[in-house]
Each structure stands twice: as structure tokens, then as C-alpha cells.
Design goal:
It comes from Gossypium anomalum. This is DDE Tnp4 domain-containing protein. Its main location: nucleus. By secondary structure, the chain is an alpha/beta fold. The protein has 2 domains: 102 residues, no CATH class; 240 residues, no CATH class. Helix content is 59%, strand content 8%. The protein has 16 helices and 5 strands. 35% of the residues are buried.
Length: 418
């Protein structure tokens, strides 16, 4: 073969190669958008496949435990049973601490505000609220909640936190707030009927919610009194609340470390700042032994040797205090997650406790009865009235006028009794 033929063949090969390369580039450019859309379709298909696998896994787990539903009513069928229109009202209330109508109201208000759109779309609003309410009501571990509702543990954890956040952002402004002038007038009248003490607008109490030891600032959350009482190291956060005569919260302060006493928590609260701004001029919030006597905080006499006048005053003020403590008793009785050490992370705890307070108010406002069987004894720092360490001395007075005003009230109570 001569050189001319070789050159001719070489040129033909190069031409064909160039044409193939150009065809490939054109084909590649034309298919870019197709490949992208195909990738998206495949991604959606695979996500759907994974969802199906996850769902099948739950069903398989339930199938592999033949006595699962029979023994404890767990799994998806349990929630489906509770969600039936003909499910008995009394059974529903026993499970969720509220009537069907109140439960439906909560679901509707959360849905209508649009906050539910941020939650997991694969789970209905009603089921997410049910998971949250059940978890708060029982304090049941997430692994058991997961089995009961036929959902993954992570899905249950997300549902609880997201619903609690929605309750605090959407419902708290509506259901927890300082009363207006008209409501305050009624509150004062009702407290005066209870105690004969005029101008009382609230009963204040501080309780503790036990927690696991935090990773930082451990000493701040150490609860000395609970540790001594239970003979077991205890950590907690505080919850300060003011209630009206019905036991409805009008103000809450949540999350300060458990080593702080009632006086310290009060000074950190928004209520204290509002009072300094004049919100509580001329009225009283009744507190316990742990609070200081101030122009707007009325507390019992703490001397061990009381006059008859002072003793009578303490009895009457104790009736007002009892309103707040019983309200906290119902709060912890309904939402038993507040009674035991929680596995909720400390940054999320205020939202969870806040949601419990909102749900408490909804139940109280809607006339949901409280099951006496749910009542549980709990002890806080101010329950030991003879402990001088936890009482604020009378010498820690914020004004002489407050002491004179208390003496005048005590004197009037004595003459009223006579």
C-alpha cells in the first residue's frame, strides 16, 4: 500500500471520528434536561420506595409479634380504634385527658394557623397531636409510644417537639395571658369570697420538674432539698405560675435552674419586670413562704410565735395558696411527664412544659373534669413550712408600706370573723 492511500484512509478516519464526537456532544446537550428530570423522577420513586419499605417494616414487626395487639393494644390499629367516630367518649377522655371535642378543637386551631405544615407531611395533624398528647399525659418512653402508634421513634420524637412548639407559638398567646380590667374585677371578687382578703388578682406557686443531669452547669440544676428528701441526687428546672380562682394560669415562668429559690426565680420572671413597670399597682399576688413581702406580693407571717391576728391571716392566705398548689397538682396529674426525670433535652424542655401549661388551661376552661385517680403527691421547696433556710426573712422587706398593709388586712380579718 502506498503513502497516498494511507493518507486518504487516515483523513477519512479523522473525519468520521470528528463527526461521531460532534454527534455525541449534540446528543449530550439535548439529553441534559431529560437526564435531570429523569434523575428527579428516580429520586421521587426511590423515596416512595423507601417509604414503602419503612411502612412494610412496621407492619412486618407487628406481624412478627402475634400477641402484640392482643396484650396491650399497641400499633397502628390502636390509634385507628381511638380515632373511630363511635369510640366511647369516656375511654377517649381516659386516654387523652380530654373530651373528643376539645381534642378536635386543638387539632383545628393548630391546622388553621398553618403551623402544622412544618410538621411531617406523611403523618396527619390529628395523629401528630395524639402522639404528643399521649406522650405528655403518660410520660411513656418514646420506644413504647412508637410501638403504640405504629410509627418510628424519630417520627414520634419530632411529632412531640413540633406539636409542643406549635402549641406554644399558636395557642399560648390565646390561652395564657394576664387578665384584662373586666376579668381582674371578677377575679378579685372570687378570691375575696374564698378568703375575705380584698384586691387579690392571683395565687402564685413555684414547682420543680425533675431532669437528667445536664452536661454543663450541673451545680446550677442541683436540687438540694429534693436530694435530701429522696436520698438520691436530684436535678430540676423550676416552673413559676400565677393562677386565677379556677386554677387557670395567667402567667408562667419556665426553665430556671433548680438550685434557685422562689425569690430568685421571681426576680428573673417577666411578671417581676411588669410589676416594676406598674402593672400590679394596688393589687396583690399571694405567694408562699419562699417569696418576699412586697407592695404587690402578699405572703404569710413566718414567725414561730404568732399572734391570733397573724395566725388567722395565715389561715386565710393559705386558702388562696391552696388554689395554686392544687392547680399544679392537676397540671402534673394530667401531664405525668412532669413527674419523672425526662429524657427531653434541656433546650427543648421549656417548650414541652409550656405546652403542658397551655393544655392544662384549655382543659380547665373547657370544663374537663379531673380524674381523682390521677392525683399525685409532689413536694416542693416551700412545702416544709418550718424550714428557715427556704423562707425569706421578714427583714427582707421591699417597703415598709407592704408590712403595714399586711397588718391592716390581718386586723380587718380578725374583726370580720368576730
Amino acid at each position: 500500500m502506498n503513502d497516498g492511500d494511507d493518507n486518504c484512509k487516515r483523513r477519512r478516519k479523522e473525519r468520521f471520528a470528528d463527526e461521531d464526537f460532534n454527534d455525541m456532544n449534540e446528543s449530550s446537550n439535548d439529553e441534559n434536561s431529560v437526564l435531570m428530570s429523569t434523575h428527579k423522577r428516580k429520586t421521587r420513586t426511590m423515596l416512595g420506595f423507601y417509604d414503602s419499605v419503612a411502612s412494610a417494616s412496621v407492619n412486618q414487626t407487628e406481624t412478627q409479634s402475634p400477641n402484640h395487639d392482643k396484650q396491650s393494644g399497641l400499633g397502628r390499629s390502636w390509634w385507628d380504634e381511638c380515632n373511630r367516630p363511635d369510640y366511647p367518649e369516656d375511654e377517649f377522655k381516659k386516654v387523652f385527658r380530654m373530651s373528643k371535642s376539645t381534642f378536635e378543637l386543638i387539632c383545628f386551631e393548630l391546622s388553621s394557623e398553618g403551623d402544622a405544615s412544618t410538621l411531617r407531611n406523611a403523618i396527619s395533624v390529628k395523629q401528630r397531636v395524639a402522639v404528643c398528647v399521649w406522650r405528655l399525659a403518660t410520660g411513656e418512653p418514646l420506644r413504647l409510644v412508637s410501638k403504640r402508634f405504629g410509627l418510628g421513634i424519630s417520627a414520634c420524637r419530632e411529632s412531640v417537639l413540633e406539636v409542643c412548639s406549635a402549641i406554644c407559638s399558636v395557642l399560648m398567646p390565646k390561652y395564657i395571658g394576664w387578665p384584662d380590667v373586666k376579668s381582674l374585677r371578677k377575679i378579685k371578687e372570687e378570691f375575696e369570697v374564698i378568703s375575705w382578703i380584698p384586691n387579690v388578682v392571683g395565687s402564685m406557686y413555684t414547682t420543680h420538674v425533675p431532669i437528667t443531669p445536664p452536661k454543663t452547669c450541673v451545680a446550677a440544676y442541683f436540687n438540694k432539698r429534693q436530694t435530701e428528701r429522696n436520698r438520691k441526687t436530684s436535678y430540676s428546672v423550676t416552673v413559676q405560675g400565677v393562677v386565677d380562682p379556677r386554677g387557670v394560669f395567667t402567667d408562667v415562668c419556665i426553665g430556671w435552674p433548680g438550685s434557685m429559690n422562689d425569690n430568685q426565680v421571681l426576680e428573673k420572671s417577666a411578671l417581676y419586670q411588669k410589676a416594676n413597670g406598674g402593672l400590679l399597682n394596688g393589687v396583690w399576688v399571694v405567694g408562699s413562704w419562699g417569696y418576699p413581702l412586697m407592695d404587690w406580693v402578699l405572703v404569710p407571717y413566718r414567725q414561730h410565735s404568732l399572734t391570733w391576728t397573724q395566725h388567722g391571716f395565715n389561715e386565710k392566705i393559705g386558702e388562696i395558696q391552696r388554689v395554686a398548689k392544687e392547680a399544679f397538682g392537676r397540671l402534673k396529674g394530667r401531664w405525668r411527664c412532669l413527674l419523672t426525670r425526662t429524657d427531653v433535652k434541656l433546650p427543648d424542655l421549656a417548650v414541652v412544659v409550656g405546652a403542658c401549661c397551655v393544655l392544662h388551661n384549655i382543659c380547665e376552661m373547657k370544663g374537663e373534669g379531673f380524674d381523682p385517680d390521677l392525683r399525685s403527691e409532689f413536694f416542693d421547696d416551700d412545702d416544709d413550712d418550718d424550714d428557715d433556710d427556704e423562707m425569706v426573712p421578714d427583714v427582707d422587706l421591699r417597703s415598709v408600706s407592704s408590712m403595714e398593709a399586711r397588718d391592716a388586712i390581718a386586723h380587718n380579718l380578725l374583726h370580720h370573723a368576730i
